[in-house]
Specification:
Layout: H1 2-9, E1 14-18, H2 29-44, E2 54-58, H3 62-78, E3 89-96, E4 99-106, E5 115-119, H4 132-140, H5 143-151, E6 161-165, E7 173-177, H6 192-209, E8 214-218, H7 229-246, E9 254-260, H8 266-277, H9 301-309, H10 327-333, E10 339-342, H11 346-358, E11 365-374, H12 375-395, H13 419-422, E12 431-438, H14 443-449, H15 453-459, E13 469-471, H16 475-479, E14 488-496, E15 500-503, E16 532-535, E17 543-546, E18 552-561
Parallel strand pairs: 1-2, 4-9, 5-7, 5-8, 8-9, 15-16
Antiparallel strand pairs: 3-4, 6-7, 10-11, 11-18, 12-14, 13-17, 14-18, 16-17
Length: 563
């Protein structure tokens, strides 16, 4: 019960249990199964808005599996429930010139085609995660993995296409590709949905080049990669349409999309493909291009979608790059230096002074507080915030830092920052102000180019949370990284923490945040990652780390002296 409640509190959608107690402890499998089902039933009572939807029981021993399966069927039957069965049916079809497109619900391994398409991890280890890649190995035999290991020992990059023979599958060739998860970062300046579109087009072009007549896709992106079905379907169908319009002499005659009918969401995916394949449904991308006319209530998924789709402007309190223009308009019309320093207004100056002096733990004299208005750098930061809003539009708001498991509470400096500054932040994505101390000779380069985690690795031999951009909730901590004499320099920077991972231990090998599946350190097997890491070391000051410098913006530079 405690595990279920904690997973639900953290906003998780699925959880997996082993057959608890059936090993060394020797509990009877039937008793364990009964206890687990009873706990799930009690957890489910009265929870109308639980995020936890899927609970898996993973069983190692065959005899234990049979007993637990029997108990599950007995309990399901007693409640009038039926075992989830595999759905197979034809959904829709249409013609694009000589190409016939069909959408069916079935298993892709049962299909006959010249080419079958499959996505997998970049290391090309097909059995490293459940799903279609592993199923292909089970049907084709291990020889398909051997060919991948032999021909592509270094794996592949996101968006690449690699080819193997079909072996025991009902196809001549198998096309493998690595796609970005929906919540992932840009790859080669492409959003995940653009990578998906390009990969589909690449598959079609390759099949046509080699004289293939039939090509079969799975419902790309809708499972492990967590694409919204309507977006994934629209990109796949649009790629097929664009290929047909450009390649009139193609050899392809049949393109099939196979939706796996053994999941709970196949009907939602089917509906999305039917909509995308129906001409009168209009352009499936229109909803992603048209700005919303009114601002929805804050904290709602509609608001998060609005923030993701809007054309951002500079902050209203900036005085050089004013918010009368969009950021893109400024970046295409601004002449000369795109980074300038300006004097903040009196209220903002007081708010920053308060947060700085109240967390410094010593006497000081503030010489100046300047705002850095760097329109190019700020554009990168805003795009990263929009990526967080994109994720929130699907999953909901991030768990606040103060409510994150293992957290001591909100960032200390935020307690001293006045609403005159706070009102411009977005707590739904854990956007905060944090301090970053630096040397005088680095201030200009940071103001021009932003933070560079590679410099941290050069200047500090041991980094507790790996190679990232570090910041602190107290100016006292950041003071230790300044010159320490004469006039010292410290940034107050905006940071988009997103989904926060807290740890009481050092994880020195990190180059990006851990995954949400529980792997310690750098994970390449799971697409859903945290966005930042907070070191919650007992008896020590916290440190905040992001691994993409676009997640932080050096907005204010504080110059001060210490007697």
């Amino acid at each position: 019960m405690n595990c279920l409640a904690e997973a639900d509190r953290l906003g998780m959608t699925s959880i997996a249990f082993p057959a608890l107690g059936t090993g060394f402890l020797g509990y009877p499998p039937k008793l364990v199964a009964a206890a687990m089902f009873h706990a799930v039933e009690n957890f489910d009572k009265g929870r109308t808005k639980a995020s936890l939807k899927i609970i898996n029981c993973v069983v190692f021993a065959d005899d234990t599996f049979k007993e637990i399966l029997t108990e599950a069927k007995v309990r399901a039957t007693s409640k009038g429930l039926e075992e989830l069965s595999l759905v197979t049916r034809a959904s829709c079809s249409s013609n694009m010139g000589k190409i016939h497109i069909s959408v069916i619900v079935d298993t892709i391994t049962s299909q006959t085609a010249d080419v079958i398409v499959c996505t997998c991890s970049s290391n090309l280890k097909l059995c490293s995660r459940p799903g279609l890649p592993k199923n292909l190995v089970e049907v084709s035999g291990s020889v398909i993995q051997s060919e991948l290991d032999r021909r592509y020992p270094n794996g592949m990059k996101v968006g690449d296409l690699v080819v193997t023979n079909g072996y025991n599958l009902k196809c001549r060739k198998v096309y493998f590709g690595c796609l970005s998860p929906f919540f992932g970062e840009k790859k080669e300046d492409q959003l995940p949905e653009q990578v998906l579109y390009s990969f589909v087009y690449k598959c079609l072009a390759s099949a046509s080049k080699h004289g293939c007549k039939s090509l079969t896709f799975p419902a790309l992106g809708t499972g492990y990669l967590k694409f919204p079905p309507d977006l994934a379907a629209s990109k796949v169908i649009q790629a097929i349409k664009d290929f047909h319009n450009k390649e009139q002499q193609t050899s392809l005659r049949e393109v099939k999309i196979v939706i796996f009918g053994g999941t709970n969401d196949w009907a939602k995916i089917e509906k999305a493909y039917i909509k995308s394949c129906t001409p009168q449904s209009g352009n499936p991308n229109e909803g992603h291009k048209q700005p919303l006319k009114t601002v929805p209530p804050k904290g709602t998924r509609a608001f998060f979608k609005y923030k993701y789709l809007e054309e951002p402007k500079p902050p209203s309190y900036w005085t050089h790059f004013k918010n009368s223009k969009t950021i893109k308009e400024w970046n295409t019309t601004a002449k000369g230096n795109t980074a300038v320093r300006k004097q903040p207004g009196l209220n903002i100056t007081k708010a920053i002074s308060s947060a700085f002096t109240k967390t410094l733990r010593t006497q000081c004299t503030i010489v100046s507080i300047e705002r850095i208005e760097n329109i190019s750098l700020y554009e990168n930061y805003v795009h990263e915030c929009q990526r967080m809003f994109r994720k929130a539009s699907i999953n909901g708001a991030c768990i606040p830092l103060a409510s994150t498991k293992g957290s001591r509470g909100e960032a200390a400096c935020m307690k001293h920052i006045d609403d005159d500054i706070k009102k411009y932040l977005h707590p739904e994505i854990n956007e905060v102000y944090l301090f970053h101390g630096t040397k005088r000779n680095l201030v200009d380069i940071i103001g021009q180019q932003g933070f560079d985690d590679r410099l941290a690795k050069m200047n500090f031999g041991r980094l507790r949370l790996g190679n990232g951009v570090y910041s602190a909730e107290e100016s006292y901590v950041s003071k230790g990284y300044t010159d320490g004499n004469d006039q010292c320099k410290m940034f107050l920077m905006r940071v988009c923490l997103g989904d926060v991972y807290t740890t009481p231990q050092n994880i020195e090998k990190l180059t990006r945040p851990p995954c949400k599946s529980g792997c310690i350190g750098v994970c390449t097997d799971h697409p859903d990652l945290f966005d930042s890491v907070v070191g919650e070391w007992p008896g020590m000051c916290r440190e905040f780390t992001v691994y993409d410098r676009a997640k932080c913006y050096p907005e204010y530079i504080i110059t001060y002296t210490i007697p």
